Amino acid sequence: xxxxADKRNLTMVMDLYELTMANGxxxxxxxxxxxxxxxxxxxxxxxxxFAIFAGLEQIxxxxxxxxxxxxxxxxxRSLNTFTDAFLDYLKNFKFHGDIYSFPEGTIMYPNEPIMTxxxxxxxxxxxxxxxxxxxNHQSLVATKTARIVKAAAGKLVxxxxxxxxxxxxxxxxxxxxxxxxxxxxxxxxxxxxxxGIPVSGTMAHSWVMYYQDEYEAFKNYAVNYPDNTVLLVxxxxxxxxxxxxxxxxxxxxxxxxxxxxxxxxxxxxxxAYQSIKVRKMLDEEGLDDCKxxxxxxxxxxxxxxxxxxxxxIDSYGVGERLITGATSDYSDDTLALLGAVYKITAVEENxxxxxxxxxxxxxxxxxxxxLKKVYRIYDQKGKAKADLIAKADEVIDMSGEFRFVDxxxxxxxxxxxxxxxxxxxxKVFENGKRVYELPTLEQIRDYxxxxxxxxxxxxxxxxxxxxxxxxxMTPDYYDLKMSLLHEKGMTGER
Length: 494
Fold this sequence. Notes:
The protein has helices at 16-27, 56-64, 70-78, 84-91, 121-126, 128-152, 168-180, 189-195, 205-210, 214-224, 238-254, 271-284, 300-308, 320-323, 441-455, 475-488; strands at residues 34-40, 51-52, 98-101, 107-108, 115-120, 156-159, 185-186, 230-232, 263-266, 291-294, 315-318, 341-349, 352-355, 372-378, 384-391, 402-404, 414-416, 420-423, 426-430, 433-434, 470-473. Helix 6 (128-152) crosses helix 7, helix 10 (214-224) runs parallel beside helix 11 and helix 11 (238-254) runs parallel beside helix 12 (271-284). The longest helix is centred in the first third of the chain and has 25 residues, at 128-152. It is α/β, with parallel strands linked by helices. Strand 6 (156-159), helix 7 and strand 7 (185-186) form a beta-alpha-beta unit. The protein has 2 domains: 4-140 and 335-488, nicotinate phosphoribosyltransferase (Alpha-Beta Barrel), CATH 3.20.140.10; 146-323, Alpha-Beta Barrel (TIM Barrel), CATH 3.20.20. A 7-stranded antiparallel beta sheet has the order 13-12-1-5-3-19-20. The chain is globular, with a radius of gyration of 26 Å.
């Protein structure tokens, strides 16, 4: 299948500071020092209860194609910032590290390591921006789509967002992420070509406006596409003109050909009122199988409202608020963010990884140090009770009672009983070579659906005040973090 990485080199998608740091490390002789970085995020978008991890396939493509071309090196030389020895080093640069990751499509929560990069210092630093760009964008869109699909309550949702995306890549990879999140298809043709996503589309208002009258426009479309005639009925007047002309075309053009009018689309106005009125008009004309499709700045909140008003809608075309992750709730302008970050957690010294911790006056920005593993804890019914962070070398034995610490309330004596634990990260790269077979897009999509329907509590999937998923720690890991906080913490007065 076609990949955009086949046609261009994305190695230079990075912040300049990654190269200035790499140049400094090189000059200091630290090329082979190994470190560990974690990718994680701090808050769920839309005040939601979870997020969906997406973008791993594109990260793999990026890492496998990582190299500096002659043109790249020449440009960097022109900046007069880097030493000649470092630029010569970049000419033969390849990634030589290990990467561990959640499988794509995994339901994820704040402050857990979605990905861990264990690599030579320069290698680990260079990949930061590209990894975050993929995780932040696709995970946001996949999560937003899952919310919209849930609101649609079984009715089809399609991605109509390309023209409102932040650029062409965002349109294509946003379509991929929306499919992971549960959209039935996309209007973006390149996404269909690249990823095998079902594509759909009918007409724009310009088709209707080009012809002398609306009936002629509808008739010509039906003649061209008799097996899939869906007519856009709101160019002039949905109730007085658009739907009557669509009905006329159904009777006069399609039915003599033995065809049926597949659907009508409404893109403006009071969608609830119009859909109820239009449904009655269509049914009275024997067109009860004609679908009503709506678009126009939809998201999970507007769709929930339409359902509450008993709107007669069969499917939704969702544009800018899907592809950008934006919301109709404007009370908080930080809603349309995922905000994944990339933080160093350990440095190898004499063959042993020594934990590092970032301390901040903002508690949420204090990092979880060291090499670690994250487990999902399931009850006897297969429901995810919590996630558990452990030291990388700990043995997690759930055969009996298992004591853990809630870092928000560490004084409580808490235990898991009759539970099972699943390690969430898998090894994707070892010494720069991929050792993981990527799932297909359909498998990723099915994985998301299975988790949301069988494993993740419905209380976490509420749009308003969702249950907060528990993020627990083993006692040994909690003690490690506390000891570093006490060791590194500054003393003083308020």
